[in-house]
Design goal:
Layout: H1 3-11, H2 13-21, H3 24-31, H4 35-46, H5 51-72
């Protein structure tokens, strides 16, 4: 595996944890460094770390707070 790719994986704790949990990705990353983009996409989907997930969580929190405030009235 390329050193730059190893550095990227070790710097991000979520990616490193995902790689430890799913070690079969190691073979694919060794053979094809361009698989890194697909690997990050898969990891973000699994950990709900996409922008759409964050926006959805924020909307859910706002709905929750507004329902609490309306029940206090």
């Amino acid at each position: 595996m390329e050193l730059e790719l190893q550095r990227k994986l070790l710097e991000d704790s979520k990616m490193y944890q995902h790689l430890k949990e799913n070690s079969f990705y190691m073979k694919q990353l060794n053979r094809n460094p361009e698989f890194y983009k697909e690997f990050t996409k898969i990891m973000k989907e699994q950990y709900h770390d996409r922008v759409t997930d964050k926006i959805g969580d924020a909307i859910d929190n706002l709905d929750f707070i507004s329902s609490i405030l309306s029940s206090l009235k």
